[in-house]
Specification:
The longest helix is centred in the middle third of the chain and has 15 residues, at about 70-85. This protein has helices spanning about 5-10, 35, 55-65, 70-85, 100-110, 130-140, 155-160; strands at about 40-45, 115-120, 145-150, 165-170, 170-175. With about 180 residues, it is an alpha/beta fold.
Length: about 180
């Protein structure tokens, strides 16, 4: 449908073949620090977590990359880890975590720098029903804190998580509106 490709263009990972893209007043393909520090991307099929290390170590790396203060870092990690119920999980090597636990950690890692805009590309890909519903609670808990653009193949998921829905086919946006 073009969902992942569109997100990659919106985040500057790919350059559009034609037309112009602007996000938060920036041209994403220029990948300016001011732009990148205001967005985050979580892809259901890619990981930013260091496989052999506990997730908390990736969080610390992101803290340094985005120049987040110690105080703000502790505040964000405590809030998100508590919200997601992964207090113990963040100290276990990522390779030992379930897919659902890893996705929760991926979301925390993406929020360390408090982005204004969070792109979630099929975040429930491969999750079982219970883990999927838990992640839905997490995503709904983030509403109002930032703008979230989520891609999914599942209308049930779009309806459960979205205030507005866009339907794409062959890279073209066919519909944008409410679920009603």
């Amino acid at each position: 449908a073009g969902k992942t490709t569109t997100l990659k263009c919106l985040t500057g990972l790919l350059t559009a073949d034609m037309g112009e893209v602007e996000v938060l007043g920036f041209n994403p393909k220029k990948r300016k620090h001011e732009f990148l520090s205001r967005i985050a991307l979580v892809m259901g099929n890619k990981s930013q977590l260091w496989w052999e290390l506990p997730a908390i170590e990736t969080f610390k790396l992101n803290k340094e990359i985005y120049e987040v203060s110690d105080e703000r870092f502790e505040e964000i990690v405590l809030e998100m880890v508590t919200l997601l119920g992964i207090e113990e999980v963040v100290n276990i090597p990522v390779r030992k975590l379930s897919l659902g636990e890893r996705m929760k950690c991926e979301i925390v890692a993406s929020l360390i720098h408090t982005p204004e805009l969070l792109f979630l590309d099929e975040p429930t890909l491969g999750l079982d029903v219970i883990a999927r519903r838990e992640l839905w609670k997490t995503i709904n808990g983030l509403k109002g804190k930032m703008t979230i653009i989520l891609t999914t193949h599942y209308m049930e998921e779009a309806e459960a998580l979205s205030d507005r829905i866009g339907i794409m086919k062959d890279g073209k946006l066919l519909f944008v509106g409410t679920k009603e």
